TrEMBL record:
Limits of the UspA domain: 3-143
Organism: Caballeronia glebae
Highest taxon above the source species: Bacteria
InterPro entries with a match to the protein in the record: UspA
Family classification: Belongs to the universal stress protein A family.
Residues passing through the membrane, by range: none
A matching Pfam family: Usp
Protein name in the entry: UspA domain-containing protein
Amino acid sequence: MNWKTILVHLDDSRRCATRMQFAMEFARRFDAHVIGLYLVCQDLGHPLFDPGLSLQRGAYGEQRRTSLDNAREAFEQAARLAGVNGEWRAPTGSVLDAATLHGRHADVVVLGQDDPDDPGAFIARRFVEDVVMGLGRPVLLVPRSGDIKTLGESVVIAWDDSREATRAVADALPILRRARFVEIMTVERHRDEKSPVGIEISAYLDRQGVSASFSSTPRIRGENTGLTLMDRANSVHADMLVAGAYAHSRGLERVLGGVTRTLLETSTLPFLLSH
């Protein structure tokens, strides 16, 4: 099975064009339909527009309309250049409700990593987290910086034998089948901890047409598991990471951090998350 419907979130952020090209590239590979979902912050108190403009509703609305028109033109042009079937949507109302509703009718949703240095990247508090948790579809997260030269050619799977990791592997099969290199990696949290056996997941992938190696990496002293995963992925020159989201309760993750939060906040690689 391939991805046939790819939804990409569009906004007024500096990274939007990169995210859009990311979606177009996968659409070309899978002959997929691309939905451009334009959603921006609805909080009038958040400084998304030119501070030199009047705060009057008319000036604010005019800039919003201009931004929407520019985003639509850029999306439609990108779809034409990529030779894919593109569909523009700009729903009103709650951004989280819209992202969840429209995303549930796609095979994968492409979002951007939060960028505290770009006001245009702010949509809502915990937007990415809430979409991942409520969507029921895999999310491909594009990092807020860096060049994306290859996509899904060298993939690292973060494996801990959990429900979330199992779901992520199944969701990532369209990418894994086309990858040149796939590594299943576990991180040992304690020296006396036995790593989850990788034979079964390796055999499963082999039956799916995916040849994968398996490794177990000790956690670097002073680092959390998420950083160890990224160090390993970078050491093998991976261009994508596949991971399950929120193996613990989301409330606990927000208080204590965790692998998912580390990846969401600091990953420099595109990665696929499933919950």
